[in-house]
Give the backbone structure.
Amino acid sequence: MSKYKYPNRVPFYKFLLKSSSIAKNPIPFHNETFNTYGDTISIKSPFYGYIVLTRDAAIAKHILQKKHKVYHKSKIQTKYLSKYVGYGLLTSNDEYWLQQRRLIQPAFHKEKIKNLVDIINATVNEQVDLIKPETAIDLYPIMNELAFEVVAKSLFNFSAEKETLKRLQFIIARLQEFIVKELRQPFTKLWYWLKGDVRYHMKLVKESREIINSIIDQRRASNKQHDDLLDMLLHAQYEDGTSMTNDQLIDEILILFVAGHETTANALTFTLKLIAQHNEVLKKVEAEVEQLSQQQVSPLQELSQLNYIKCCVEESMRLYPPAWITDRVNVEDDDMGNYNLKKGTIVGASIFEIHRNKEYWSNSEQFKPDRFLEENRKKILPYYMPFGAGPRLCIGNNFAMYEMMLVVKAIVKRFIISTDDNEIKMNPLITLKPIGVKISLEER
């Protein structure tokens, strides 16, 4: 008898029968499987061996926090993703990850991010001023453009040409689309290689690295202070007094672009749609913005008063977490609750399903920002992980929250927002993307 004990096993043929619909959108399969077999299940795949999937918050915390030293990022991230976006914080493991995290963490400390709030706020207002009032406007492209500009200005302030950044934006979007195709359908890899798709995308990787490298070189040659993230990263020093090489900086900057703009654009799109769908919520948001507009306060002071908008953003990320799933692989055998997993098991925690698990959330499918009011937070925080958990908690979480709160405020201050449909479509790629989400904007 095997010494290993896995959760309820789903026959692989069931996965195979639905593989084409899973490749398009795995969420319905996950939901149906959890509802049939329990909150934690296993599948034995001929490609990856044993895979465990869970919507149990305790197991998610086990792999991300309690036993994080045993559970490393899987090859999906360290090998396949890093090929395109570099070996930075998101894709590295072990000592190298720890060394980079210690080096970069201070640049993302709350106090440091507060220094960037003026840049973030100015960029947000600039972008919102470009939005034209319109009926049924497709929200995601506008939020994507805005979020890209915020990351670009916060990283590079004003030291990069607009056309250069546009090209970088195009490359990053193409790479993300291709990474998902490769990961979802591993059996098509040879076909992509023969077709020349892999070669084309690797050329884009080379071009993106060259763009960022030239920006770094220009900054190194300049004597100006920019008070942006690039300055902080250039001046960050390891314990031996050395700094990052250009290649290391490029890896980290690419990751910041990829992880920092699309996730925020997704979350903002869902948040604004949900606020527009719920009239009583919209009225509270408008009242908060109106009250604030009567005061003469700095953007930083505004953030401390946008309490209800913060609740709306958090509740939106509960229902539609941008990082909707996370995976780890154990580097040694491990006891996990009632299970004993063999070394090399991939464990996927569906943040999307944890955030909608009826055991943790009352009316789990409903948008109720009041859950996140101060008096309710303690009860729900153990089950809430839109930025992950443990030592690998997203380094840009404060940056993202500040940006999203300021965007919602700026849009509601400028426009009357509304919607005439309650449908929200999504596509779970590397991040959870909104599809055709529209709202109407009318000048105030």
Notes: Residues 321 and 386 are 5 Å apart (CA to CA). The chain has a mean pLDDT of 89. Residues 8-443 form a domain with the Cytochrome p450 fold (CATH 1.10.630.10).
